[in-house]
Amino acid sequence: MNVHVSSDIAILREANEVLLQHLGASKAARFWAAIQPGEGDYLKVRDELFAGETVDTLYEQVLAFRRRKMGEAGDELK
After folding, report:
1. Domain residue spans in the chain?
2. Are 63 and 77 in contact (CB under 8 A)?
């Protein structure tokens, strides 16, 4: 008995074809953009990115960012 095992590339190509057929080009492209893995090693840079930060200081930064983006006082964000 012979078993045919598809290569990873062949499977990815087939999956891409299915996505294009069922979602269309625009939605398939958005899907591919959303699932692309990031670059680098987050665990290596995490300590540098958040040096001296606490949950409270990060929370305040998020609120400030959202206030700037929304152009509002931000009271409803809490």
Report:
1. 1-36, 39-78
2. yes
